[in-house]
Design a protein that fits this description.
The protein has about 270 residues and is of the alpha/beta class. The chain has ten helices and seven strands. It has a seven-stranded parallel β-sheet, sandwiched between helices.
Length: about 270
């Protein structure tokens, strides 16, 4: 159901890869709510995914951009403003990657060159995106910038590896840059801490099925889906949340406030 929450609003959506990705679901919901946007991802991701299908479905254009490259980001911002006809009202940063995770290196045996690459892609890119937008004065007043994160930034999930550090850094960037964006441009910046979600990227984490099963049993409302996250993101892009900024917002069925649940305790006792 559409409420025209984003009618007349313009933006950029980073990270849509395929129909499983949160950015993909968000793009569909933004389109349903009347928003227009440019889709972007790294050139290699564009070759691997089906983003052209999404672009056709949402009447959007695709601009390849490496989010770790300032030159690429400046080109993206300038071209997107030309295509959309003005400044942006919303931006979604849905980007994350760990070479250590992909190549099976343990947290206690990091390849630090890989670690630096993962930090650049997963967290520093968020600073680069916002700095580029800030310097170009590319955001409208009361605009909204959202990045996606995970509970491992606060609690230990051993197999999440260096992505946990990246998410903690990402959340800090959101708060720190969000202060300046709010003070100077009246733009709000928030992160959404999402339930473990079976996206293409998420499924690369060792033991990911276990993450999902455990969170499902722990959460009184069950895991939030990619569609749930898209819906939540739309509210943060809308004018209904104008004074919400510098927040890490949990979209996780209540997981973040749980100590233990009956379902988890029953499972534990079953194996005693």
């Amino acid at each position: 159901m559409s409420y025209n929450l984003l009618k007349g609003k313009r933006g950029i959506i980073f990270g849509a890869l395929d129909a499983n990705s949160i950015a993909w679901k968000t793009a569909e919901r933004v389109h349903e709510e009347g928003g227009t946007f440019v889709l972007t991802n790294a050139p290699i991701a564009l070759r691997m995914g089906q983003i052209d299908e999404l672009a056709k479905k949402t009447n959007s254009e695709v601009i390849p951009a490496d989010a770790t490259s300032i030159d690429d980001l400046e080109n993206l911002v300038n071209k997107s403003m030309e295509i959309l006809g003005g400044k942006f009202d919303f931006v979604l940063h849905s980007i994350g990657m760990s070479v250590n995770v992909r190549k099976g290196r343990a947290y206690t045996d990091q390849n630090y060159e890989w670690t630096k690459k993962g930090t650049d892609v997963s967290a520093m890119s968020f600073h680069k995106v916002m700095q580029t937008l800030y310097k170009a004065d590319a955001m409208n007043e009361w605009g909204s910038i959202v990045a996606l994160t995970y509970m491992a930034a606060q609690r230990v999930f051993p197999d999440y590896n260096d992505m946990a550090d990246n998410k903690a850094y990402l959340e800090s960037i959101a708060r720190s840059f969000g202060y300046f964006f709010g003070r100077d441009k009246k733009v709000r910046v928030n992160t959404i801490s999402q339930s473990p979600t079976p996206t293409t990227a998420g499924q690369g984490v060792k033991g990911f099925d276990g993450f999902i099963a455990y969170a499902e049993k722990m959460s009184p409302l069950g895991n939030a889906t990619a569609q749930d996250c898209a819906d939540y993101t739309v509210t943060l892009f809308s004018d209904l949340t104008r004074r919400v900024t510098l927040q890490n917002l949990y979209n996780d069925g209540g997981f973040s406030n749980m100590g233990v649940s009956d379902a988890v305790m029953d499972e534990f006792l079953k194996n005693q």
